[in-house]
Structure formats: structure tokens, C-alpha cells
Amino acid sequence: MKEWLRSIPPVHELQNHRRFLTLLQDNKLDLEQLTKQLKEVVDNIREAILNDQWTGSIPGTNHFIEELFTILDAKVQKQYSYTLEKVINATGTILHTNLGRARLSENAINHVIDTARNYSNLEYKLTEGLRGSRHSHVEQLIKDITGAEAAMVVNNNASAVYLVLRALAVDKEVIVSRGQLVEIGGSFRISSIMEESGAQLVEIGTTNKTHLYDYEKAVSSETAIIMKVHTSNFKVIGFTKSVETDELVNLTKRLDGVIFYEDLGSGALYDFKKHGIGEEPVVKEVIEIGADVVTFSGDKLLGGPQAGIIAGKKEIIDRLKKHQLARVVRVDKMTLAALEGTLIDYARGENGLVNIPTVRDILVTSKELDVRSQSFVTNLLQNTGKYVTKITKGTSQVGGGTMPDVELPTIVVALKHRELTAEQLGRKLRIEVKPAIVGRIQKDEFIIDLRTVTAEEEEYLLQALIKFSEA
After folding, report:
1. What is the pLDDT of residues 248-257, one digit of tens each?
2. Cis peptide before 9 (omega within 30 of 0)
3. pTM to 2 decimals?
């Protein structure tokens, strides 16, 4: 053991080795940084030898030196590689939370790139030459699209809910139906957010039934807000009763100083109902009914970046903008650019919606997917005989905690590799190709849903499958 330890060359000697110099040049590293990595590799080898765990070549040999630098090379590549990377989503789940939710439109992406690359008028009025507000860049668009008097943007919808409750109802009562005390991803609960905000939760009704008289009886001199939470991530069916938005608006109009606030969560700016898809309330409809303030997400059905959007009466939004928390939860220039790029397409009307991947992927028809799937399978079988293929009807999910009861009719390609299990094929596609490919596995078949795969990605997916035609 001592002889092995003595045989490990000193670091200064290893620094002069051709492989060290090549790593330094090829990776454009600082000498100090690469030396630090080299010392860590040598220390780890020493520790492994001392613990009788070293299984590599004998120290002092040429093989050992080459192995040491191979370890260093792998360490360098891992250290200086991005961990956030592109993934091809072949699952058919459009707003896949684990895969980054909404894909941005090209307009949004280009606007982000231009804004990030250059200085911008983020908080500057070009016409007056004076300091401006970052709220101004998307507020008019949100007002035009939703019909709200005013609007602002924060970093996500949980922040939007927190800001509204903290600014408008601290030490006051907020009335909420028990059936709407939802939990969103990561165990974040409306009731917990409310508790943190300093507002006092007043629960009414039962899990499945809440009536207008429950709200009426709960109102007191301490009531600040009647709150409705859209249960976008689950649906209760059967013996149920809830109070509609218009009834709650009419109730608050009869009350002095009580605000009606609706958290819409999913943020539908487009009416998917007219295509027979779901029952999501459109933000504009809720504003028109008379809600004082609404909040919703930017990266769900809206199809933009992660953001929380607050829209409603000007007097209320002005109070929120001036609150100290507004700075804590504000968004940066890239988020604003992505949101502005997305909202401009909405402002264009139906013609602009085709540019938004989320809307486009929800509305794509089974007929279109069938044509693409037939062509995909034909191309695959012309290049390899290693797969048994089947084109069949299936369902896609919207995902992202939205439209929980909606199943979008789709066409899927079901693959069986003649030598690999579906699990083995799925693993290879995830870790042996870049970008990684994620699909579904059902009954030992690898399922591909082209709904969430672009034409460019489709060709890459085809080539990856051909690559693994030989197990």
C-alpha cells in the first residue's frame, strides 16, 4: 500500500503531462481550476488505496497515469456541463411539470434573446427620459385581452395569491369554501399560504357542497375578502354544489368594503370550451362578470413563462403595486419579455394563437396525429426491422395541474423492440442520446405520442430509434 502511494506522481509533475495540457486547452480552463480538480482526483485515489477500495491500474504504470487522466476528464466534463438540458417530450402530456411545463413560442423566445443580449427600457420612459415602471410593459396587453382595469405580474401564482391576501386582508377574515382549499404541487396549500399571509381563514360549507347562504352567514364586520379558488388540479363529481361567480359578485356588491377575489390558477385566456375541451373559465369572462381581482399562472394554459398575473380593479391593483412585498415577488426582464412575446400573439386574435405551442398542441386533431404517426412508422420500418409497431387510439393529458378530467383523443405509436424490453429502450433513449427522449411505457410497449413532438424533433426521434435497432 505504501509503495502504491509513493508511486503516485506529484501534482506538479502531472501538470506537465500532455493530457493535462490538452484538457487545459480544449476546455479553456484556468490553470488554478484544473489543478484543483486534479488534486481532488489524486486525493480520491489515495483515499481509495488506503481503504483497500482501489480497483484500477497499479500506480506508477503508464496505464495508471492514463486512467487518472480519464477520471479527471470525466470530472471536468461533468463539472462544466449544464444540468438543465433540452428534452424531447414524447409523452403527449402538454404541460408536463417535470419536463418544464409550457414551451414558449418563437416570438417569446426571440424577444427574450434580444432583451437578454442588450440593454433595455425595463424601467425607463424613452419618450420622457425619466424612470419608468416594469409593470408597464405587459399591463396594457393584459388589460386589452382580459378587459381588466389594471394588471401586474409577479414571479408565480402562489406569490400572486400571497400578495393579494397580505396586502388586502392581513388580520382580516377571508371566506373560502372547504371544497376549494386545494393543495398544489410540492405540498403548498391555499390554507397554509393564507396563514402565512396573516389573513384569517373562515371555512364554510363541506367538501362537496357549499351554498350561497353559507357565505352570507359567514360574513362579519371583520370580513375583507370572499375568495373563490378554481379547483384546476382535481374535480369532485356526484353529489356536489358550489356557488357561481356571478352569485358571489352580487353578494359582495351588497356588502360594504368586501372584495370578491377569484384565483383562477390555470390562466385560460382562450376559450377551449368551444372546442368541447374542458370547462376552464376564461379570465375575460370572470372579469366581465364583475370580479374585483383575479390571479392566474403564466406557464399553464396561457402557454408563457412562469409568472403570476394579477388583474382587476385599478384601485386594488394600485394598492398591490405599492405594497412592500411587490418588490420581493417581482419578475425580471427575461420573464417580462417572454410574457410580452406570448401576450402579443393573444392580442392578434385567432391568427396569433397558432404561434403558441400550448394552445396549438391542445387543439391538434387525432386526424393530423394519425397522418404523422403513419408516416413516422413507415420511415422507421424502412430503416430497421428491429421493432414491432402498432398505431392505435389513445389519450393525451393537458397536465400541469389543469383540466384534470379532460382526456384529449390522440393517436399513439406503440413500439416493441425485438431484443430490448420497453424499460431498457426507454432508459437508452433517456441517457444514451442527447437531447434525451422521454416517452411512456405501457404493457411492455414504448409509447410515443407525437402531439408534443415537433417536426424537427420527430426526425431526431426517428434517428435515435434507428440507432438502437441493434441491441
Report:
1. 999 999 999 9
2. no
3. 0.89
